[in-house]
Amino acid sequence: MTANLEAEAGSAPQKRLFIKTYGCQMNVYDSERMADVLRPLGYGVVDSPEGADLVVLNTCHIREKAAEKVYSEIGRLKELRAEDPASAGMTIAVAGCVAQAEGAELMNRAPAVDFVVGPQAFHKLPELIARSSRAKGQRLEADFSVEEKFDALAGAKARRRITGAAAFLTVQEGCDKFCTFCVVPYTRGAEFSRPAQAILDEARSLAEQGVREVTLLGQNVNAYDGIEGGLAALVRALAKIEGLDRIRYTTSHPRDMDEALIAAHGEVEALMPYLHLPVQSGSDRILKAMNRAHTADSYLRLVERIRAARPDIAMSGDFIVGFPGETEADFEATLDLVRAVDYASAFSFKYSRRPGTPASSMPDQVDEGVKAERLARLQALLETQRQGFNASTVGRTVPVLFERKGRYDDQIVGRSPYLQGVFASGPASLIGQIAAVEITDTNPNSLSGRLLDQTAVMEPA
Question: Does residue 84 carry a pLDDT above 80?
Answer without folding.
Answer: yes
